[in-house]
Automatic annotation (TrEMBL):
Family statement: Belongs to the LytR/CpsA/Psr (LCP) family.
Domain LytR/CpsA/Psr regulator C-terminal per the UniProt entry, residue ranges: 370-456
Record-linked Pfam families: LytR_C, LytR_cpsA_psr
Cell envelope-related transcriptional attenuator domain: residues covered: 109-268
Protein name: Cell envelope-related transcriptional attenuator domain-containing protein
Length: 462
């Protein structure tokens, strides 16, 4: 859920682009911009902004001598500041969704996502991590990733996000520069403030084990098709873990969370939202009570500057899961608990995927023709992997069975003569293999890469 906060902030930033709106009057646009800037700055760094009040009078006196954006920067001191990670070319933000004080396990995180901003290419990537993934938490040993925030809170207020950032950053091989935490109630209230969120549910499902606020269970159901979800229903949609019809996993839930994020982005970008001062004030009031973040006011201003250029219609998304070709596998802990662990003895595959996440757009541009073949006796493997690769930007020409079904290891054939290096590198990284260069057969001149899946891509229990 809390991933919504990041997109809320980024959507508010992007909304300052007049091309994204209908053609309102110049006065309406300026007023809309003013309220968006004010909301963002007050929300993230109200205390810091107030500490600079001696500058406010001078700014107001010279208001007409500067543009609106320049005046905002003068108010919060964001002229020359750079964000952590900016010089290195990547800013990483941990976003967490937690139950809050009224819920059992108030600091356990149902949503764990890393959002990365790459300023030089103006790209944003969202990486969802399942709550049952086992990771080393400094000072506490191997634990489920969703408990890192709770363990940190035992060290002091807001230390949960700090500890979670340290642990998750180490596992993914990247520094976590900033964090944001949003409570369930805050998420639902924001949805209601916006009048609900439009969602197309691909397949309906029921969950007979949805948790209630009184630590009980109830049944929630969703029909397929287009609908507008209010705050409570949207919260149920993104939190459900025991749904029927293939929706009973953390991976399905992570995809639903990303779906709601993108739908909220559209709602936030609409003129009905960003040209409505009273709505902006309601959003501020509700969010300020339910969001915790380490962004300061001047840092928020810099984030606005960077994100104004980001294309939010082309956000890169990735969910780590246990599907064939995925990077995780299921296991049972000593106490009988359901756990997820990497396919390999360490977290190197996850780190490679995170490191290469921005190469997806390059893969899309190369548009290499890929054929996926099942070299095992596991039915449907080629289709499952093809679907996963397509989501990641690969162009799968077709999929089917290999010449035989006893390939012990996955093989990648490159027929391009090195003409599509990004596609090759990313496939090699994803499947931990080295491509073999071959000349294409005369009757298969349309194929540029052939991926034959071996038994090494099957879960350990198959």
């Amino acid at each position: 859920m809390v991933t919504f906060f990041l997109l809320l902030v980024k959507s508010l930033m992007i909304a300052i682009n007049p091309e994204a709106s209908l053609p309102p009057s110049a006065g309406d646009v300026n007023r809309g911009k003013f309220f968006l800037y004010s909301l963002l700055i007050i929300l993230i760094g109200g205390g810091l902004w107030l500490s600079r009040q001696p500058n406010v009078q001078a700014v107001v006196m010279e208001w007409n001598e500067h543009s609106l954006w320049e005046n905002v920067k003068r108010l919060v001191g964001g002229d020359d500041i750079k964000l952590a990670g900016e010089d290195e070319g990547r800013i990483n933000i941990l976003v967490l969704g937690q139950g809050g004080a009224k819920h059992d396990g108030p600091y356990l995180t149902d949503t764990i996502m890393v959002a990365s901003l790459k300023p030089d290419t103006k790209q944003v990537a969202l990486i969802s991590l399942p709550r049952d993934l086992v990771i080393p938490i400094p000072g506490f040993g191997l634990k489920k990733i969703n408990s890192a925030n709770a363990y940190g809170e035992t060290r002091g207020l807001e230390q949960g996000a700090v500890l979670a950032g340290d642990a998750i950053g180490a596992v993914l091989g990247i520094p976590i520069h900033y964090y944001a935490r949003l409570s369930f109630s805050g998420f639902a209230q924001v949805i209601d403030d916006l009048g609900g969120v439009p969602i197309t549910i691909e397949q309906g499902f029921s969950d007979p084990e949805y948790p209630t606020d009184t630590n009980g269970l109830t049944t929630v159901s969703f029909e397929s098709g287009w609908q507008i979800l209010n705050g409570q229903r949207a919260l149920q949609y993104v939190r459900s873990r025991h749904g029927t019809n293939g929706e009973g996993s953390d991976f399905a839930r992570a995809r639903r969370q990303q779906q709601v994020i993108l739908a909220l982005k559209e709602k936030l970008l609409s003129p009905a939202t960003y040209l409505n001062p009273s709505l902006a004030l309601r959003l501020y009031r509700n969010l300020s009570n339910s969001i915790e973040t380490n962004f300061g006011a001047s840092e928020a201003t810099r984030l606005v500057q960077l994100a104004r250029e980001v294309d939010l219609d082309n956000i890169i998304t990735r969910v780590f899961d246990t599907s064939p070709g995925g990077l995780l596998q299921e296991t049972i802990g000593p106490d009988g608990a359901y756990l997820l662990i990497p396919n390999v003895p360490d977290y190197s595959e996850l780190q490679k995927a995170v490191r290469n996440i921005f190469d997806v757009s390059e893969v899309t541009r190369e548009a290499a023709q890929l054929v996926v073949e099942n070299g095992t006796s596991s039915a449907g493997l080629a289709e499952t992997v093809s679907t996963s690769l397509t989501i990641q930007g690969f162009k799968v020409l077709r999929y089917g069975n290999a010449s035989h079904q006893n390939f012990p290891r996955t093989i990648l054939y490159d027929y391009t003569g090195g003409a599509k290096p990004i596609t090759r590198q990313l496939l090699e990284s994803l499947f931990l293999i080295k491509a073999v260069e071959l000349e294409p057969a005369t009757n298969e001149s349309d194929i540029e890469f052939r991926l034959i899946l071996g038994t090494d891509r099957l879960p350990a229990n198959e």
